[in-house]
Amino acid sequence: MVDTNVKKVESTHSPQGEMGQKYLASGKALSMRLWEDEQPGEAKPETRRDYETVGYAIKGRAELHIEGQMVLLEPGSSWVVPKGASHTYKILEPFTAVEATSPPAQVHGRDES
How far is CA 41 from CA 59, 75, 77, 89, 102, in A? Predict the structure, then answer.
């Protein structure tokens, strides 16, 4: 059976996760979330997730530390965090980015810290 549902999500009405992310549109195999005006500070705790993440930086700068490498994220940068990769982010300037996760990060508590 083909899923023909069409969804539209306005970020101003999106549910917010415990880490500050806004959950945007979500399908069965893929979802989007928005990190809006994340403030500079200490690096986030290092983690491994059971989903793959691709992201796109809209505003600000951040460092992605992943498996012993550092990637500078600036407006226009996109990145991939493979499923199971050890990683952390350090926000350098107020940072806004959108990410897509597969499978959806918020299902079955996958996105909890």
Answer: 16, 19, 20, 10, 28
Phi, psi angles (nearest 5°) of residue 11: -60, -25
| CA–CA distance, 2 with 58 (Å, rounded to integer) | 34
Q: Taking the model in full, what pTM does it have? A: 0.86
**Residues, the chain:** 113
Identify the structural domains of the chain with CATH numbers, from first to last. Answer: 22-109 (2.60.120.10)
| Residue 73 φ then ψ, to 5° | -105, 125
As a whole number of angstroms, the distance between CA 66 and CA 91 comes to 14
Give pLDDT tens digits for 20-29. Answer: 899 898 888 9
**What is the token pair recorded at 106?**
């918020």
Distance CA 95, CA 74 (A): 9
Amino acid present at 39: Q
